[in-house]
Amino acid sequence: MDKRFTGSLKMVIVLCLAQLITACSSNNALPTATLHPSNTSDIYSYHYLIGAGDELNIFVWRNPEVSGSFIVRPDGMITTSLVEDIKVAGKTPTELARSIEEILGTYLREPIVTVTVNSFVGPFSEQIRVIGEAAQPKAINYTQHMTLLDVMIQVGGLTEFAGGDDAILVRIKDGQQKQYNIMIDKLIKEGEISANIDMLPGDIIIIPEAWF
Q1: What are the tens digits of pLDDT across the range 70-120?
Q2: What distance in Å separates the CA atoms of residue 134 and residue 141, rounded to the nearest whole number?
Q3: By C-alpha distance, which of 118, 108, 195 is closest to 151?
Q4: Which of 37, 48, 133, 195 is most exposed by smallest CB count within 10 Å?
Q5: Residue-level pLDDT at 46
């Protein structure tokens, strides 16, 4: 096959893919990651939700016999000394404490319950997923004020074949799926801090292979 024809064909394929990515991506620019000094109000207020695999410590004041540590089952429930199959996944620790107080009120007089999380997994819907040409593609537990740079550190950066500046962020916004171009190469290889962005629970990062 003619080398000039082969080169032209490759160029056409690259251009088509570039147009496809652009068509799938939102024109809305993501805001640059912000610093979060303590004692300031957040635009996005995050509350941790309990998920399957979390280890919970449930303390019932003056009732040690019904207190204890519990692992959330895959079905999102736990079983305590007095009550079987309490639905806990998807609730904040405070919401769960109030629910348990209501349930235990049938057996105990004015129970006071505190719930703490000892081991964090969280719901799958809250995790950030990184797929494609990351060094260690995986799902990451979301942490408040997490940025793209924090995520890339956890996945070990990019592979040598990654097209970091062609990466896509998929995010659910107002009940609709949105896609954004993100510049990972500029961020971690060139130190372009303006390419850093705030992450949200449920974000998906897709890192394609580079076209050389």
Answers
A1: 999 999 999 988 888 999 999 999 999 999 999 999 999 999 999 999 988
A2: 17
A3: 195
A4: 37
A5: 85
183 within 8 A of 149, measured Cβ to Cβ: no
Burial of 146 (0-12, 13-18, 19+ CB in 10 A): buried
The tens digit of pLDDT for each residue in 160-183 reads 999 999 999 999 888 899 999 999
The rounded distance, in Å, linking the Cα atoms of 80 and 106 is 14
Please say whether the beta carbons of 14 and 181 come within 8 A. no
What pLDDT was estimated at residue 9? Answer: 46
pLDDT tens column, 52-82: 999 999 999 999 999 999 999 999 999 988 8
Which domains are seen in the chain, by residue range?
A: 55-119 (3.30.1950.10), 127-212 (3.10.560.10)
Residue 90's Cβ-count burial label (10 Å; 0-12, 13-18, 19+) is: middle
Amino acid, res. 39: N
Residue type, 27: N
Q: Strand order in 55-60's β-sheet?
A: 68-71, 55-60, 113-119
Name the residue among 127, 138, 104, 114 with its Cα closest to residue 51. 127
- At position 155, the amino acid (one-letter code) is V
